[in-house]
Amino acid sequence: MSVKTGQCMCGAVQLTARNVPTTFGQCLCDMCKRWTGSFFMGVSVAPEDLEITGTDAITTIQSSDWAERAFCNKCGSSLWYHVTEGPYAAKLSLGVGVLNETDDMVPVREFYSDRRTCAYQPNNDIEKFTEAQVRAMFAAPDAPTDTKG
Q: CA 74, CA 40: separation in Å to the nearest integer?
């Protein structure tokens, strides 16, 4: 377990999470696909272990009878998924994508695996580009060098 920092795309929501496990789950349900444009990767965190600034930029919607989702109302970044009833309500699934450093984290479970499509299959035969190559293709020559895409 470790301490991780993170933020939404625009920086309006910033967070520090304590007791973050190194393992996480990914969900391929239709709602997660629509919510993220891909699939959701979430790490289980207790709400009391989450320190957030910019809460005025957070919007929460009830997405099903048993869960809600939070996102930044300034930039649209997915923040977390939270089961609201039953034994899993004690924690929320914080989006792995909002965390700043995830090199030590690995997926260990997949939800709605029967909803996986060809778009979510690992493919080692596809063309790959490094950050430097992408910046050379799309960024202005004098653009600051950061990791924003």
A: 20
